[in-house]
Amino acid sequence: MRPDTPAETVDHTAEAARLERTAGLYPEDSEALLLRAAAHLELAGDRPTATALYDRLLSSTDGLENPHLVRALKASNLWEYGHEAEARAIIEGVRVASPRDPAPWVIVAEALESHDELEAAHDTFTEAVRLLLTDVPQPPQPTHPLLFGRHRVRRMLGKSHDEWDALADTVHSLPITLDELHDPKRVWSLGSGNPVELAAEITRLRAELGAYREALSRPFPVAILHWPATELSELLEAYPTLAAEYPSHETHLATIESALRELSSSGTPNLGIVTGTVPSYEAFAASELSSPGDATLLPQYATTLAARGRAVAWPPQQGAACWCGSGRAYGECHGSDA
């Protein structure tokens, strides 16, 4: 599905089938592709088949990058078609595991919230926030839904503001405050016959919809191809015609940073880096009926990796590790003179 395809025109069942076929061609990306396929099946209303995909992932002999995320999605899906007891058990398992990734926490907490388990949802959001944000100077972007979700549930429970709610207010960027967005009384204004009240509520709903779209969107980045040192050595040994593209690994890394900064200064949004491997590149070249030594394939390979969800956003967040794999913080490595 193209990023600009209107959601209402998508054949979710066909899109799920396409993603499953793609997962067979690119097993190294099967986790991300099958999760997207399961999401389409849920949107199509075929929740049992979506559960089967989650089970397929969880039973895989290959290690999953984020098994807690898969379990959380399975639990949320199960609850939607009547398997409440199993869903609750999985949710409790995710909470006990205390994953360091915020996504599973958001999913299980929102599953509880959507089924009116507000106290349990509040406890889950709070547990995640304390685990992931205690002594963190600036909440990373992926943790914002935890703060917003906790704020929303606390408003519905009538709880007073605390320090985490204040932090949620500081990272909230929309013109309408979180207190307005999460006001439980807003729903009553939708039944009002007063045009002024209705217009104000439409404005608030548009702002909230914008927040949801921002949280759910996965922008298609302009991606630059990065080769780790060992992969680049193997690539050039096998295909020496590419040496003109990569005089040295140090030059390669400097070129990436320079290109990204130039794109950023020109106003290009959604920049990212994709990391290549020789086997993956060779498989891509074979699928294009071309030779891996053809340098014109390199940007196409980068675009394909980005389309498969392999891009990492650039620049890294403050304090995050550098994209080059050195192990040092970005600000102390390639971002030192930014």
List the helices and strands and how they pair.
Layout: H1 12-25, H2 30-43, H3 47-58, H4 67-80, H5 84-97, H6 102-114, H7 118-133, H8 144-157, H9 163-171, H10 178-181, H11 186-189, H12 195-216, E1 222-226, H13 229-238, H14 249-265, E2 271-275, H15 278-287, H16 297-307, E3 312-313
Parallel strand pairs: 1-2
Antiparallel strand pairs: 2-3
Helix pairs in contact: 1-2, 2-3, 3-4, 4-5, 4-6, 6-7, 6-8, 7-8, 8-9
InterPro entries: SEC_C_motif, TPR-like_helical_dom_sf
Pfam family, one: SEC-C
Protein name: SEC-C domain-containing protein
List keywords for this structure.
338 residues, mainly alpha, 59% helix, disordered N terminus, SEC-C domain-containing protein, SEC_C_motif, TPR-like_helical_dom_sf
Biggest sheet character: 3 strands, mixed
Percent range for β-strand residues: under 5%
- Give the termini separation: 36 Å
Pattern of helices and strands? HHHHHHHHHHHHEHHEHHE
Low-confidence stretches: 1-7
Mean pLDDT: 86
Give me the count of strands. Answer: 3
Overall 3D shape: globular
Q: Taking Cα atoms only, what radius of gyration do you get, to the nearest Å?
A: 23 Å
- Determine the structural class based on helices, strands and strand pairing: mainly alpha
Helix share, percent: 55-70%
Number of helices: 16
Q: For the largest sheet, list the strands in their spatial order.
A: 1-2-3
Report on the structure:
The chain has 338 residues and is mainly α. It contains 16 helices and three strands. The chain has helices at residues 12-25, 30-43, 47-58, 67-80, 84-97, 102-114, 118-133, 144-157, 163-171, 178-181, 186-189, 195-216, 229-238, 249-265, 278-287, 297-307, and strands spanning 222-226, 271-275, 312-313. The two termini are 36 Å apart.
